Amino acid sequence: MLSDRGKRLGDLMAGTVVLQERIPTTGTDLLQMPPPLIGWATTLDLSRFDDGMALSTRQFLGRSGQLSRTARESLGAQLVASVQAVVTPPPPPGTPGWAYLAAVVAERRRRDEQRHGVGPAWNGEWGQQQQPQYQQQPQYQQPQYQQQPGPPRHQQPTSSQSGQENPFTLPS
Q1: What pLDDT digit, counting tens, does each position of 95-106 carry?
Q2: Is the terminal CB of the chain with fewer CB neighbours within 10 Å at N or C?
Q3: Looking at residues 140-168, what average pLDDT do you find?
Q4: Predicted confidence band at 152 (pLDDT cuts at 50, 70, 90)?
């Protein structure tokens, strides 16, 4: 039950306004390393794969689902050729362009994270996080306390102790 401007009928009757706000995504969708390319990706020379090309590659991969098939194939082929011109060694035969680009970007991100000490630790295998090495905790023993007598007990002074009658005792 909406008006032609998208207002709900109840809002029209009550005279209220509903505000809708678009919130941008956080950009936390990270490209994953294609498993068949893990071993090959560790051998890459990425020294000429600059920030601009990495950004173009990430943007293409993130938006490729929104492109028509012909546009995706054309732009993808151009981008693969540009990346292959600066990244060595070439991908294994039969590697699809999207997998090649995703592997290059994922490996670059892994190396950046490793260099800057952020992200998961890497022990040479993708998807397995290295466990931190902890020193063995010292064994503590329960401290031995000397046996203490209980808390001091307060005793009512008797008339013989203080030399006068206790005002709080009832006369007998």
Answers
A1: 999 999 999 999
A2: C
A3: 55
A4: low
Backbone angles phi, psi at 36, to 5 degrees: -65, -15
* Buried-exposed string 107-120: b where 16+ CB fall within 10 A, e elsewhere: bbbbeeeeeeeeee
Residue 80 identity (one-letter amino acid): V
Handedness of CA 26, 76, 66, 40 (dihedral sign): negative
Residue whose tokens read 């600059």:
50
The reported pLDDT for the residue numbered 133 is 47
Is residue 47 within 8 Å of 40, Cβ to Cβ? no
Give the 3-state DSSP-derived string for 44-100, with helices as H, strands as E and coil as C: CECCCCCHHHHHHHHHHHHHHHHCCHHHHHHHHHHHHHHHHHHCECCCCCCCCHHHH
Radius of gyration of the chain (CA): 37
Of 54, 53, 72, 50, nearest to 63 (Cα)? 72
Distance CA 82, CA 85 (A): 5
Which helix H or strand E contains 106, and what residues bound it?
helix 97-116
Q: Alpha-carbon distance 17 to 19, whole Å?
A: 6
- Verdict on whether the full-model pTM lies above 0.70: no
Residue type at position 24 = P
